[in-house]
């Protein structure tokens, strides 16, 4: 679209000379009715920083860095074949699904429960609602270090508490035991992001109309009935948005926890696909395979998100 | 259904218990940062049974050597000179500040157009912006890493700033669009009919009304850049080191200096916390890109 040709056609009122508050003649594009100058910088930025990486990743997935020639060499479909056949990749996909699934479920249930608990106009609840957002501002990498500290088998307070409660013995270090390592990482994620769910659900609860609840109370419905029949269905849209946004973010932030707390170990029990892609690229210098893995994540994420947006009817 | 007084007390107790459980790790971190070395490594947790010390902050923020700070020799963990982190805090401030400015600048204009003007492919445009958020950072970071090395942007402020801008642009744009959408259309339409240009309408009418929203978007961009880890880790080496990257390098194979780390962690959380308190009201809308309004 050409800015100057569409300028005057839509709105005849804008044909006269336009002057800025300082009496200077404004450049033509500022007085026109075309959206191009408004949107173009953003569009250009996305072309360079989103479309280009995508295309470059596709190109990279058919190439691999060769230590001998010190250059990228075409390898055909080798990276994609490796993707399908490698057990470690399958493992990473499974770990990712478990990680994302457990985190989402735990944060949804805990978030809703805590939001219901804190949704009150009584004194002090405002303070509580402010306090519970605190974990959200701690940088994830620092949260990871904090939980690494608290889960230390010798002096960590969480290990101490778990030991006292008889859940996990202190002689079994949480993060270096294959059975509990993933749980140890998920704990950090759940601590940091449950407050986010609480905030979303609080916003949703506060926006609900009063009438259905009053009507139900008059009809003698029990608390449980009100929750299942009224509160939950009315929150469904908010819940869909929460799942979508948190689901996407799980791929952005989980890296910090895994990198810092376990480096994917012990063995590969905490190695998610994002972490594995990063490791292939930056540790093993397999740029092509790293790009292939990240492409797989990207495609999976876009397909799943779009299906979810379609079926859950999320609107922006 | 009103609660009986006993139920109210029960509910308040539960609410406080849950909230304090969530705040506890932060409290524990802050407490560790003023604990003497020995108290941190005690077999049973030490709460208030110690004399507070400030040497960790003196080393991390003021660049004192461990000897100066404690008045005694190196101890188990050497000099502590590698823990001076004020430069990292400055690097984080520069990166977060610049990427926030760029983000808000690019997003405000685009959000206004997306909310107020009608153009071909508008729906697709909104959706493209949204799907940019679905880009896993690792998928962006691999190409950027390779290209940055060619262009000399690797390990530079510009490189990280641009990467962080990309990460936060969808957030800023969609959030601001939701704020513009909330303004009654009649206001700027009447300005247009009165002969004001688009620019004038935007600058004198629409923008002043969404100032609060712009501030909220800016704060969220700042906090996300301040806390971002993957991109900062992958695109820098020694020239630029943001706080999360610097902090993660405190963990070494010979053991971790938890005192220094907790001091840095506590200090690095405070700016983000202050900012978030300022936009508390808009927090939900921001985190959900405007899809949930509060």
UniProtKB/TrEMBL annotation, chain A:
Pfam family, one: BPD_transp_1
Feature: compositional bias, Polar residues: 1-18
Region (Disordered): 1-20
Single biological process term from Gene Ontology: transmembrane transport
Ranges where the ABC transmembrane type-1 domain occurs: 93-308
Chief subcellular location: membrane
Record keywords, A-Z: Cell membrane, Membrane, Transmembrane, Transmembrane helix, Transport
Membrane topology value: Multi-pass membrane protein
Xref: PROSITE patterns: ABC_TM1
Name of the protein: Sugar ABC transporter permease
Automatic annotation (TrEMBL), chain B:
ABC transmembrane type-1 domain segment(s): 89-279
PANTHER family for this protein: MALTOSE TRANSPORT SYSTEM PERMEASE-RELATED, MALTOSE_MALTODEXTRIN TRANSPORT SYSTEM PERMEASE PROTEIN MALG
Domain of life: Bacteria
Keywords: Cell membrane, Membrane, Sugar transport, Transmembrane, Transmembrane helix, Transport
Record-stated family: Belongs to the binding-protein-dependent transport system permease family. MalFG subfamily.
Secretion signal span: none
Organism classification: Bacteria, Pseudomonadati, Pseudomonadota, Alphaproteobacteria, Rhodospirillales
CDD domains in the cross-refs: TM_PBP2
Protein name per UniProt: Maltose/maltodextrin transport system permease protein MalG
Biological process per Gene Ontology, one example term: transmembrane transport
Transmembrane portions of the chain: 12-31, 93-113, 125-148, 160-180, 201-226, 258-279
Main location group: membrane
Membrane topology per record: Multi-pass membrane protein
Function: Part of the ABC transporter complex MalEFGK involved in maltose/maltodextrin import. Probably responsible for the translocation of the substrate across the membrane.
GO CC terms: plasma membrane
SUPFAM superfamilies given in the database record: MetI-like
Subcellular location: Cell membrane
């Amino acid at each position: 679209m050409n800015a100057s040709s569409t300028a005057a056609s839509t709105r005849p009122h804008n044909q006269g000379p336009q002057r800025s508050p300082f009496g200077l003649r404004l450049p033509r594009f500022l007085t026109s009715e075309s959206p191009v100058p408004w949107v173009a910088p953003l569009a250009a930025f996305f072309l360079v920083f989103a479309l280009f990486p995508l295309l470059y990743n596709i190109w990279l997935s058919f190439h691999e860095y060769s230590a001998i020639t010190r250059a990228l060499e075409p390898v055909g479909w080798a990276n994609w074949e490796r993707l399908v056949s490698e057990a470690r990749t399958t493992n990473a996909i499974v770990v990712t699904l478990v990680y994302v699934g457990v985190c989402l479920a735990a944060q949804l249930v805990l978030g809703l429960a805590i939001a219901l608990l804190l949704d009150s106009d009584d004194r002090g609840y405002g303070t509580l609602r402010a306090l519970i957002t605190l974990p959200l501002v701690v940088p994830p990498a620092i949260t990871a270090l904090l939980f690494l500290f608290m889960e230390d088998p010798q002096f960590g307070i969480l290990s101490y508490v778990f030991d006292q409660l008889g859940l996990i013995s202190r002689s079994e270090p949480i993060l270096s035991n294959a059975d509990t390592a993933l749980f140890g990482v998920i704990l950090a994620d759940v601590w940091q992001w449950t407050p986010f769910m609480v905030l979303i659900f609080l916003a949703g609860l506060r926006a609900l109309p009063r009438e259905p609840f009053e009507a139900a109370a008059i009809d003698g419905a029990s608390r449980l009935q009100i929750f299942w029949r009224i509160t939950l269905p009315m929150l469904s849209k908010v819940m869909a948005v929460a799942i979508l946004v948190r689901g996407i973010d799980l791929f952005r932030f989980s890296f910090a926890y895994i990198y810092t707390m376990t480096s994917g170990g012990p063995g590969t029990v905490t190695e998610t696909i994002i972490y594995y892609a990063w490791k292939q690229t930056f540790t093993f210098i397999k740029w092509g395979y790293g790009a292939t893995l990240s492409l797989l994540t990207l495609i999976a994420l876009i397909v799943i998100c779009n299906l979810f947006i379609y079926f859950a009817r999320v609107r922006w | 259904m009103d609660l009986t007084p006993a139920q109210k007390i029960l509910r308040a107790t539960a609410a406080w218990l849950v909230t304090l459980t969530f705040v506890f790790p932060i409290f524990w971190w802050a407490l560790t940062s003023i604990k003497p070395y020995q108290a941190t490594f005690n077999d049973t947790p030490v709460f208030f049974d110690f004399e507070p010390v400030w040497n960790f902050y003196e080393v991390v923020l003021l660049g004192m050597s461990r000897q100066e700070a404690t008045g005694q020799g190196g101890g188990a963990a050497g000099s502590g000179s590698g823990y001076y982190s004020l430069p990292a805090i400055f690097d984080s401030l520069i990166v977060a500040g610049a990427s926030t400015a760029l983000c808000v600048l690019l997003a405000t204009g685009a959000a206004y157009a997306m909310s107020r003007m009608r153009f071909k492919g508008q729906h697709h445009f909104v959706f493209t912006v949204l799907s940019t958020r679905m880009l896993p950072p690792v998928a962006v970071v691999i190409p950027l890493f390779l290209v940055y090395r060619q262009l000399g942007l690797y390990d530079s402020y510009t490189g990280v700033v641009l990467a962080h801008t990309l990460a936060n642009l969808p957030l800023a744009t969609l959030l601001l669009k939701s704020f513009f959408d909330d303004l009654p259309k009649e206001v700027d339409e009447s300005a247009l009919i009165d002969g004001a240009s688009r620019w004038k309408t935007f600058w004198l009418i629409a923008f002043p009304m969404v100032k609060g929203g712009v501030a909220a978007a800016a704060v969220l961009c700042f906090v996300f850049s301040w806390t971002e880890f993957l991109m900062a880790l992958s695109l820098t080496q020694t020239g630029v080191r943001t706080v999360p990257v610097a902090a993660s390098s405190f963990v070494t194979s010979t053991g971790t200096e938890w005192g220094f780390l907790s001091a840095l962690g506590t200090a690095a959380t405070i700016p983000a916390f202050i900012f978030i308190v300022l936009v508390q009201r808009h927090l939900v809308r921001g985190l959900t890109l405007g899809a949930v309004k509060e």
